Every structure is written in C-alpha cells, then in structure tokens.
From TrEMBL:
Residues 248-314 form the OmpR/PhoB-type domain. This is Transcriptional regulator. One of its GO terms (molecular function) is DNA binding. Coiled coil: none annotated. Pfam families: GAF. It comes from Streptomyces avermitilis (strain ATCC 31267 / DSM 46492 / JCM 5070 / NBRC 14893 / NCIMB 12804 / NRRL 8165 / MA-4680). Signal peptide: none annotated.
C-alpha cells in the first residue's frame, strides 16, 4: 500500500479486506498480549494502535462510557475552545453527513465526544455503541478509533471496519483529523466523519484534514488582536522551554527565562531580587549580578516596557496554562483541569520554587483523580509518561478497572517498591 494512512488501496475489495481484518483481530486478541504479532493485512498504524489498546487494558468486547451529561456537558462544551468553530464544521460537513447518512463528530483532546450530529437514523444506530456527546472515545478507553487515535497520534487517520479494536464498532468506518490552537500549536481536539465503508476512500481523509485546517484558520481570525501592552499568554506545562505569546509574537524562551516568567506570572505583585534569587537557584554562591544579567537579557527579548523592576514584575496581565489548571481544579472541575494539563511544569527545571509549584499542581490533580475514581481519567494519567510509575494512581485504577494489564503493572510497581535498595530487580513472574 502506497499510503499507510489510507485504509484501502485503489482496487481493493472491501468485503475481502473486512474478512481478513477480522481474522487478524481474532488472532491478536486471542493471544491476550500487547506484544503479540499482528498478522497481515493490518496496516502498521493500526497494528501499533492495537498494541497500545491492549497495553491500556481495553477489551475487544468493551464499550465507551458516558462521562459528561446534561448540565456538565453543556457547560463544558460552552467553554471549550472548539465551540466557536462549530458553525463552520456544520457548514462544511453537515450536509455531507446528513445526505450521505454519516455522522459529524467533534471531540476534545482527551477523545471525549462533544458534539455528534447528522442523519437521525444513523445517530440512533450509533447510540447503541455510545457514540454520543459526553462519551469517552480516547484510544486508551475504547481502543482504535478515528477520533481517539487522531488525538493520540496528532495526525489525520482513517479507521476501516474491523480495524476498530472493539467489536461492536467494527461495522463502522471513520476518518478524523486533529485541530490545533493556532497560537500555541496544542491539540484542541479532532473533527470526525463516521459512517459506512464508503468512507474508506482517500477523499474522506483529505476532507476532514481540510476541514480541520479551515477551523484552525477560523480560530486564528477569531483570536482577539493583541498589542504589546495586552495580555500575555504563557505555555509552560509539559515542555522544558516555555512559549510566550506577546503582541502577536511567539517567543520561545530559554530554560532560565522560562523559570523567571513562570514565577513572575505566578506572583503578579512582583518579587524582589533576593526573593527571585532564592526561588531560582539552589546554589547560594550565585550572585545578584548573575540574576540581573539574566533579567537584562530577558528584558531585551520581551521588548520595552514589559518587565519592570523594584520589585521585578510583568507590566501586562498574563494568562498561563498553569493558572488555567489551578483555576479549574480550585472550582472542582476535575475533568476540565485534566484536559488543560499537558504534563509537568517545566519538567527539567531544578529551580526550587518551580519544583515546588510543579509538585503542587501534579499532587492536586492526582488527589482529585483518586478521589473522583473515574476509570478513564485515572487510565489517562497512568498511561501518560508522568504517570507510568505513579503507584497511588495505579492502585486507584486497579480498584475500579481490575483488568489483567492493570494488575500486572501494579504488581511490577509494588515489587519494585518492596525490593531492597541495591538488589537487581526483575519483574515478578
């Protein structure tokens, strides 16, 4: 096949491909291991997704869970950054979905369906597999599917029939493409078209990709114009070097400048030189001269008027992804807080105050997740790079989703914890 991202090459017999895929799916799922060989003709992108699905503990007879309903769903959709482009999605895809007996679906960055619209009869059929607003279709929750896999891979993807990991979804074919924040490049969610085998055509993949790009262009136009003295936007979660949007400029900051801006954004009242010195450096031998030199370089980078002194402070309001997570967590909006959390704050930073803030945010989220006992939210955290060794979260996940892969991983972590220091550790058998 010339393009591994397209489900069917020209001239392929869909019925024969479905039969071959079902045989391959049965072989793989019967083996019961994420490391198993995936037989041909399964595409490499689908084979990799099947293995990730198995590692996440997804069973082939599972189903999607509905996580948001009624008022919770309405309020979450209303504040979601993709809400402003829903009219565009409907204009570009609504008629195509209704006339072709397909569904238009939009999900968030965690694979949670926000809108599902289209042909009424098709919507009624899709209800039987919980392909409904508020349901969680992340790959880690329901296995291989176009919207969930698109946000997992951050690229357009087509999933044909028995390429779906869960059997009850295998009568369907779908294509989805991620939609990004035009300012930060972060994945906001995905737009999806779901229906029959005809969607396996290469044109459907190009179609959703074009719609996603149009949505990104619309989001860029809808973004308020910013002057040099207007609100700054700071993105620092999940990245060692923060990004600042200032006056329409995207500024990639050095590690030290990232630390300084994170701390000044967290202290809008400002910090004295001594406070900033203690917050940034573990080494007490670092002199105020070193700090002043860093601040002078940062001032030149930001431009005139943005960084004041005595105390050091930013003269413009700052909206940071850190503040968004803290604000949502403080109001009890755990799902929304997790959606905004892209990873640990400046994970490579050893600045004492940054490290404390990083732990506080992560511990606050972990505590809320464990108390919430939502298996999908716990699984997302446990399977993220920052959660793969989180014993408390794995214990909480095992309590609400005691699948064999989850129990096996928990056994490994508990064994590592109990083994004496210095012993050669191997996984229990």
């Amino acid at each position: 096949m010339s393009d591994p991202w397209v489900a069917l090459e020209p001239g392929a017999d869909p019925a024969e491909r479905v039969r071959a895929l079902r045989r391959a799916h049965e072989t793989f799922t019967a083996a019961g291991t994420a490391a198993g060989t995936v037989p041909r003709p399964v595409r490499s992108v689908v084979a990799d997704s099947w293995r990730r699905s198995a590692r996440a503990g997804v069973g082939p007879d599972g189903t999607a869970s509905v996580e948001l309903t009624d008022g919770d769903l309405g309020s979450y959709r209303a504040e979601h950054p993709l809400a402003p482009v829903m009219p565009l999605f409907r204009e570009l895809m609504g008629t195509f979905a209704a006339d072709g007996e397909h569904l238009l679906a939009v999900c968030d960055a965690q694979g949670r369906l926000l809108w599902v619209e289209g042909h009424p009869a098709v919507r009624q059929r899709a209800d039987g597999m919980n392909f409904v607003p508020g349901a969680r279709w992340a790959e880690s929750a329901v296995g291989t599917n176009a919207p969930g896999t698109a946000v997992a891979l951050d690229r357009p993807v087509q999933v044909f029939a028995a390429e779906h990991f869960i059997r009850r979804v295998q009568p369907w074919t779908c294509a989805a493409a991620p939609v990004h924040d035009p300012r930060t490049g972060r994945v906001l969610g995905a737009v999806d078209i779901t229906g029959g085998d005809g969607l396996a055509h290469p044109h459907s993949l190009g179609f959703v990709q074009a719609v996603a790009r149009a949505a990104e262009s619309q989001l860029a136009l809808l973004a308020p114009a910013r002057g040099t003295a207007d609100t700054l936007e700071l993105t620092a979660l999940g990245r060692d070097e923060a990004q600042l949007l200032a006056g329409g400029r995207k500024i990639r900051l050095s590690r030290r400048h990232s630390e300084i801006l994170v701390l000044l954004a967290h202290h809008p009242e400002g910090l004295t030189g001594d406070e900033l010195l203690c917050a940034l450096y573990e080494d007490e031998s670092v002199t105020p001269v070193t700090l002043r030199a860093e601040l002078a370089r940062l001032r030149r980078l930001l431009g005139p008027g943005l960084l004041a002194s005595r105390p050091y402070r930013l003269t413009a309001a700052v909206e940071s992804d850190v503040a968004v997570v803290e604000r949502r967590l403080g109001t009890g909006a755990v799902t929304a807080a997790v959606a905004a959390y892209a990873g640990p704050l400046l994970p490579g930073s050893q600045a004492p105050a940054v490290a404390r803030l990083r732990r506080r945010i992560a511990d606050g989220l972990r505590t809320a997740l464990i108390a919430r006992r939502d298996p999908d939210l716990l699984a997302d955290w446990a399977h993220a790079p920052w959660g793969e060794d989180d014993l408390d979260v794995w214990r909480a996940l095992a309590a609400v989703r005691p699948t064999a892969p989850v129990r096996a991983r928990l056994d490994e972590l508990e064994y590592e914890l109990s083994a004496p220091a210095g012993w050669a550790r191997s996984a229990p058998r």
